[in-house]
Write a structure and sequence with these properties.
The protein has 376 residues and is α+β, with helices and mostly antiparallel strands. It has helices spanning 2-15, 312-322, 329-337, 339-375; strands at 18-19, 45-58, 62-76, 81-92, 104-105, 110-123, 126-138, 157-166, 177-186, 198-209, 213-226, 238-250, 253-265, 287-295. It is 19% helix and 41% strand. A hairpin with a 2-residue loop joins β12 and β13 (253-265).
Length: 376
């Protein structure tokens, strides 16, 4: 009975809307703006430090420069549930463009994200992972910020469906993958809920991963179903394309960089006496530069060799740990003798043997062609 109540509570937490801004800064498994439908293993923890900067010239006034600093923490609680907390610790708001305004805020908003995912269904020879996420956001002192995605004083609600498709799900750390996040946001900025600003946040990503490097490209943006009030900044649709790169310095230390390029921005429609923009002047920057550092320490429930060099052996070892197949004899024996987990382990290893055989056959075929070419 208790387990049923717990499951019911989790379903409510994921699929009932929460206070939310369009998620801009993500830790855990995923790209810069697109969340993966895989989750952390139970006990797995990571911290991510983000910085984002851009400059935009404003006719007749000056250039607006914006810098944002964010720290995120992600923690796996179960095989299907992951919690994330992100805190903007510094943000330029450029309110000094207005009389007696401030230029920055410390801190900015705080966001808590709950992801319920890592479910999968068979698609051909591979798996489609899927799930959902919701978030709670407490805004900072300043909101309705110039050149940033729309967010106002209201308690906004957002839910998202997330899915991921890995071409090689048995080696996700080295597999090309496709990701989709789509949701619904209600910004609750009107006395009547359905007259509030409403939007569809969307992000699509592709990642090509290998042992040491990840390359990615994303499309991310927001499309209003109903625009916010006229004096709101950034009340237009927008879409960015983001090429990204991640270098895996150690097993638990990764460094990433991404560059946002504005590919679509709706016609400027803000009517605000304080706005430092002319009509038909986009309220989104043409580019944004992002940096990210991921740090994953060991916890009491999850072990990782944080500063060990990345190699085939260390990645395989960590993959077994993530599946709770700890590599000491006692843990392995306990895993295998468990009827359900033992069957899962055997199936997994058989699939990996098949994958390794395919790889070996491909290498032999490649070597055979090279020898034939040299002999001619």
């Amino acid at each position: 009975m208790k387990s049923k109540k717990f499951l019911f509570l989790l379903i409510i937490l994921v699929f009932v809307p929460y206070i939310s801004e369009a998620t801009q800064f993500l830790g855990g498994v995923g790209l810069f703006y697109t969340t993966s439908a895989r989750t952390y293993a139970p006990g797995q923890l990571s911290f991510s430090l983000y910085t984002r900067t851009f400059t935009k010239p404003i006719t007749g006034i000056r250039e607006i420069t914006s810098n944002t600093g964010v720290i995120c923490a992600n923690y796996g609680t179960t095989n299907h549930l992951e919690l994330s907390v992100s805190q903007i610790f510094y943000q330029d708001v450029n309110y000094d463009l207005q009389q007696d305004g401030n230029n920055y805020q410390i801190p900015g908003h705080t966001q808590i994200i709950l992801k319920m995912a890592n479910y999968r269904m068979k698609m051909g020879q591979n798996f489609l992972f899927f799930g959902g996420k919701a978030s709670i956001t407490k805004q900072g002192k300043y909101y309705n910020t110039f050149l940033e995605p729309y967010f106002d004083y209201g308690i906004a609600a957002q839910i998202e469906f997330i899915s991921s498709y890995y071409l090689n799900p048995y080696y996700p750390e080295e597999s090309p993958s496709f990701h989709l996040n789509v949701g619904y946001a209600n910004y609750n900025d009107h006395e009547e809920l359905m007259k509030s600003g409403q939007a569809i946040p969307l992000s699509i990503g592709y990642q090509k991963a290998n042992l040491k490097y990840d390359y990615s490209v994303e499309l991310s943006g927001s499309f209003f179903i109903k625009e916010p009030y006229l004096s709101a900044y950034s009340r237009e649709n927008y879409l960015y394309i983001t090429p990204g790169y991640k270098y895996k310095l150690y097993m638990g230390v990764h460094i990433g960089v991404a560059f946002d390029i504005l590919v679509m921005s709706g016609k400027e429609s803000t009517v605000n006496a304080y706005a430092p923009f002319n009509q038909d002047y986009s309220q989104y920057p043409n580019w944004r530069l992002n940096f990210k550092i991921d740090y994953a320490p060991s916890t009491a429930f999850y072990q990782i060799s944080t500063f060990e060099k990345v190699s085939k052996e260390t990645v395989t070892k960590q993959s077994l740990r993530a599946r709770r197949i700890i590599t000491d004899k006692k843990s392995l024996f306990e895993w295998v003798v468990d009827e359900n987990k033992g069957a899962e382990y055997i199936d997994l290893e058989l699939e990996k043997i098949r994958e390794e055989r395919k790889r070996a056959e491909q290498e032999l075929e490649k070597l055979k062609k090279e020898l034939e070419t040299k002999s001619q």
